[in-house]
């Protein structure tokens, strides 16, 4: 049997009453409603004894003064004092209950008899069998909410979170957690449904919900589409970022090759040194190949070979990013700057957007060769 720590009596009216003292030398050390040893701790033996006594009181029904009727004619005997202390709702029910003399009767309908028995027993000893919890966690959650027994509700939520929530019961748990005001559990079960939609939508719970709460089904389906779209959007954004980063690196490498020379290409106004340090520019090799191709290609016209077309685009992009064409060694930089002045408004907006996005990849790294991001008017 799982042992649950009792709440302190200061926690409110909805807690189990303090058990009576045990015989023996420790009975005088009363503090905050717990029976303590001199070092302040409850021994295992003592807590087991307390628990057993409360269980025995429930099981034996000694001087029970309440009859609880359950579905299908089941009856459970209990003590009004215990029920009233443990649950404010039961206390209210007992006040209104009819009965002869001091004997009163209340009913807890809509839940199977066994679940009511486990629930009432918990009010006595704060204990439950793990097997019973496994089987009855959902009705226990409902009762703990309906009769305001926060400690049991907390245990049920924790138990579901720790493994009792399954693909099979996820839809039921989701619906109940909405009804029982358990937002964390609602979120966890909702997430489980979305992540395992195929399996969950084949369960009985899903089919039952479709019939009883079609709006809820619609909401779940909509949230699934929404999450899918968010996922797609994230992938699209990260792919886009990769492209801007590649373009940024290509721009860096182009300036580097035209200014310093690298591998097989020397700068136009310096001697080419063969014994250079290893190159650190990520895109250098690719740009080097492209420049070599561009220099030798017979189809070197815009709209000709795809490699040349790419080179034209990179040269134009460079001119748009270039901070000072008068010092720049990249071919055609000035020519493009002139061409840009004559371009249409639509083209201008398109290019400015691209330049902004590329510069925002690495805000600092490009200066002084690239224009600053702030200098681009929108
Ligand atoms: Zn290089
Ligand atoms: Zn070509
Ligand atoms: Zn330039």
Please characterize this protein's 3D structure.
- By secondary structure, this protein is mainly alpha-helical.
- The two termini are 70 Å apart.
- The strands form 2 sheets. A 3-stranded mixed sheet has the order 4-3-5. It has a two-stranded antiparallel ribbon with strand order 1-2.
- The chain has helices at 44-60, 80-86, 88-96, 113-125, 130-146, 150-164, 170-179, 183-195, 197-200, 204-212, 214-260, 284-296, 306-321, 333-341, 345-361, and strands at 30-31, 34-35, 66-69, 75-78, 104-107.
- α4 crosses α5, α10 packs across α11 and α11 (214-260) crosses α12 (284-296).
- It is rod-shaped.
- It folds into 2 domains: 9-164, Potassium Channel Kv1.1, Chain A (2-Layer Sandwich); 245-375, Up-down Bundle (CREB-binding Protein, Chain A).
- One zinc ion is lined by residues 293, 297, 299-300, 305, 307-308.
- It holds the Pfam family zf-TAZ.
- Residues 238-336 form the TAZ-type domain.
- It comes from Hibiscus syriacus (Rose of Sharon).
């Amino acid at each position: 049997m799982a042992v649950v720590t009792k709440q302190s009596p200061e926690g409110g009216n909805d807690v189990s009453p303090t058990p009576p003292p045990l015989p023996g030398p420790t009975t005088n050390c009363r503090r905050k409603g717990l029976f303590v040893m001199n070092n302040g701790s409850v021994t295992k033996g003592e807590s087991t004894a307390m628990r057993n006594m409360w269980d025995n009181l429930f099981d034996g029904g000694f001087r029970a003064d309440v009859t609880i009727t359950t579905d299908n004619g089941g009856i459970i005997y209990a003590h009004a004092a215990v029920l009233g202390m443990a649950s404010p709702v039961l206390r209210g029910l007992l006040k209104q209950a009819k009965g002869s003399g001091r004997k009163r009767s209340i009913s807890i309908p809509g839940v199977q008899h066994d679940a009511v028995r486990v629930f009432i027993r918990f009010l006595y000893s704060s204990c439950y069998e793990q097997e019973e919890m496994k089987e009855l966690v959902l009705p226990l959650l409902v009762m703990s909410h309906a009769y305001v027994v926060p400690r049991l509700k907390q245990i049920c939520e924790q138990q579901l979170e720790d493994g009792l929530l399954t693909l099979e019961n996820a839809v039921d748990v989701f619906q109940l957690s909405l009804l029982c005001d358990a937002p964390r559990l609602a979120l966890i079960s909702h997430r489980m449904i979305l992540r395992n939609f195929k399996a969950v939508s084949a369960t009985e719970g899903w089919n039952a919900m479709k019939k009883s709460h079609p709006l809820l089904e619609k909401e779940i389906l909509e949230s699934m589409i929404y999450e899918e779209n968010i996922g797609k959007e994230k992938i699209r954004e990260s792919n886009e970022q990769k492209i801007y980063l590649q373009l940024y690196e290509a721009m860096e490498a182009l300036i580097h090759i035209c200014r310093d020379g690298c591998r097989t290409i020397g700068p136009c106004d310096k001697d080419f040194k063969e014994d250079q340090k290893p190159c650190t520019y990520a895109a250098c090799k690719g740009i080097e190949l492209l420049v070599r191709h561009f220099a030798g290609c017979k189809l070197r016209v815009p709209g000709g070979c795809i490699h040349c077309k790419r080179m034209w685009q990179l040269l134009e992009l460079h001119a748009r990013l270039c901070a000072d064409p008068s010092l720049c060694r990249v071919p055609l930089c000035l020519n493009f700057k002139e061409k840009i002045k004559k371009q249409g408004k639509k083209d201008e907006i398109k290019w400015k957007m691209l330049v902004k996005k590329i510069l925002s990849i690495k805000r600092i790294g490009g200066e002084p060769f690239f224009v600053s991001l702030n200098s681009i008017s929108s």
